[in-house]
Each structure stands twice: as C-alpha cells, then as structure tokens.
Amino acid sequence: GGEAKVVVADEPVSALDVSVQAAVTGLLTDIQRERRTTLIFISHDLSVVRYLADRVVVMYLGQIMEQGTVEEIFAPPYHPYTEALLSAVPIADTSVQKKHIVLRGELPSPMNPPSGCPFQTRCPRKIGEICEAEMPPVKELSSGHKIACHLGDNELKSMEPVIAFGEKDGGKSQVAKQSKAPAKRTAPAKRKAPAKAPAARKTAARKVTKRQQGPTIPKLMSKPRRGKADDLKLISGVGPKLEETLNQLGIWHYDQIAAWTKKEISWVDDSLKFKGRIERDGWVKQAKALAKK
Fold it and tell me: What is the pTM of this model?
C-alpha cells in the first residue's frame, strides 16, 4: 500500500456500532503513531474527535467558527455552535450532568448562506441586528484559541461547562465546575524519595522535574510498566499525545488511574499544566468502571 503523509477521513465511523468504532479509531491511532501520518478527521461526533485529535476546527456552513487545541475546544469559553455540539454528545454515565441545548429553525442552504454570521439564524445567544448584518470578528482568547463571534469577551469567558461530573460529598451530590479564573493551587509538599527507587521511576522523575521543576511525583504516578501500553486508549479524552505524556510518567494502565486520589489529580493539573480538573475526575471514574469489568 501507499505510504501517505496525509490521510483525510470523512465521517469514517458515523455509521458503525460502538465496538467497530473502537476498532477503527484504534487502527487510525496506530497508523498515526507508527507512520507519523497527519490525519485530517472530519466528524460531527465530538467524543470521537476528542479521542483522536490534537487540534480542532469547528465549522458551520463552510466558515470557521472556532479553532484550538482539544483542551481549549472542550472547556469554556466556547463558540455558541461548539456549545450546542457538546450538548449533543451521548454520555451513558448517570453521574454526568449535561446542559440540554436545542437549536431552533431550519439549517440554511450552503449555496445561499444568510448574511452576517452564518450561525445567526439558529444561534440561541444571538444579540441583535449586528449578528444579521456583519460577519463576526475573530477573537483570540488565548494563544491559538480563536472564536468568531459578536459576543463580548466577558460574556464568552463567563460561560459554564456544558458537561460536568457529579461528586459525592457528605451524602449530597455536587457538580464539579470549572471556575472562570481558577486560582493557583498550592503544590503538594515534596516527599523524600525511597532509598532504592526502580530505574523507570527515576527516569520519569528526572524528565518531569528537569522540564517543569515541579513537586516530587506522587507514588501512584510512577508505577513500573506492566503489559501493553494500549490500555489508556479505553479512557475517553486520552488521545495519542496525552497517552505518550502519561507513558513517560510510568502510567500505562487504566488501573493506575483508577487509584488516583485528589493528590494525583492536582499533581497532573499543576505540574503538566492541563486544563480542567473536571476531566481528570472523569478519567478516574472511567478507569474505575473499566477495572471492575
């Protein structure tokens, strides 16, 4: 077969059942990793996009509405169309709370798009005539994260997560939400290294400490590898890039993530600069469910 440098996959899993989808996405990931192939993956299913992609471009009627890294696209602020797409992601976990956003009106013809913002005929956050008359400006909310919208920066930044995981605290279910401007968390205190640490643990610690100069790696973050590295693919949101990062830390199995406490989650967020504590809580919930099978 050909050794393609770029592969365009247009809705490759949309008509497949869940088990076949997993096999196809796993194959695409293997090709991407082993042959260093650039994959342009086109889909309306953001849960699959999140698993495969490093960067995401959200389009409506041929116009780019939002673009950024996976972490930026799946955490507020969102473009209103991205917000609606996220609310349509199917989630079977009953502990997850999700906003229900319904788009009204007919989908305009791509051959005869509306004036102004392409999304203005169906946008639930439409602010008036400016949306109908003028193309929205492209706002760069952070490095590489751009949104084309007439909404003000403050209104965009005040958006709450579409998907939130419930947490039990004192018998009452609470929803873990991202704050608008998260305060810096205090890093865990350094712990004395054991007298004889495994070689794999030392290597992982050196890599992260040299690069981040962060706190000592918690014990559960540096277990030695056992078996194959493919187990992390079973956790939604852990794509090839994140999987490689976790492998460098000695994390190869979902049962290791299932054992994470708040300390390990905080260490991941603080030291690796990931966005969204909610996502890490979700990883643990998924890993625990997988470990019970």
Answer: 0.56
